[in-house]
Amino acid sequence: MFRFALRGTIEYLESGKFSALDFLTHAFCTRIGGISRQPYDGLNVGDLVRDRKEDFLQNLEMVKDSFLIPAGRLILMKQIHGDRINFIEKGDPLPEEPPECDGLITDRPGVALGIRTADCVPLLFVDRIRRVIGAAHAGWRGTALGIAAQMVAIFKDRFSSRPEDIWVGVGPAIGSCCYEVDAPVRAVFSAMPDAGLFARPSPKQDRWMLDLSLANRLQMLAAGIPGENIQAVAHCTACRQDLFFSHRGSGGCTGRQISLIMLHGEEERKNA
Ligand SMILES: [Zn+2]
Q1: In CATH, what number is assigned to the domain containing residue 32?
Q2: Does the reported pTM lie above 0.90?
Q3: Which domain holds residue 47?
Q4: How many domains in the chain?
Q5: CA of 212 to the centre of ligand 1 (A)
Q6: In this predicted model, what pLDDT tens digit does every residue of 56-112 receive, in sequence order?
Q7: Most buried residue, 18, 25, 195, 203, by CB count within 10 Å?
Q8: Is residue 179 assigned to a domain?
């Protein structure tokens, strides 16, 4: 189950499962809060849209303040709709610019991983036993490349995670009610055995309705994650533009919402 919560002016969704872990901060932020003006109102964190730079930078500061993220420790990505996944190891210098990738994994406390979306699926991961976290961005290209399954594979290979210990939050994304795709996009998924479940024919000829959230869920189930460990937000970003930015729903002129995850820790204090 997800529930709405408020920090300062920021309204966000939190997973009931994740919230039970006392070593974790996480949030799927809505667009509510922040200072950006229309059509980016209000908590836009996208730097590639035509919002005023000072506004989205101030929004990011508001996010860091609200979720108690130490200075310089919110790591965003230069998302490129690929399947590259980067690590942040303990002791590594933190990237000064967002790394070019669509997935980040760390076991380092006090470092927040953030994803920016407006219809694509934000995925947050936690191994609740080994205390490893991950964040990934899955649009149709990333989903077709299997980025969710690759995240699980890295948790297993690199951190010896057991699938039953990994919990996943599937954030607000465009729903199958609104996400119509054409034959070339549908064809990318045709090799997947369960594509018929998440790509259903639209009433229009040569069009399909894609359920990205379900496609990612199926991928993670196939990777061994138990179904009860995967919680998905039910809201469609295009249907609920009062709550979320939607690229498709807005005709391409809108902001980006942020989803974030961070392990709590003593690292800052020890290094001080
Ligand atoms: Zn919809």
Answers
A1: 3.60.140.10
A2: yes
A3: 2-173+230-266
A4: 1
A5: 12
A6: 999 999 999 999 999 999 999 999 999 999 999 888 899 999 999 999 999 999 999
A7: 18
A8: no
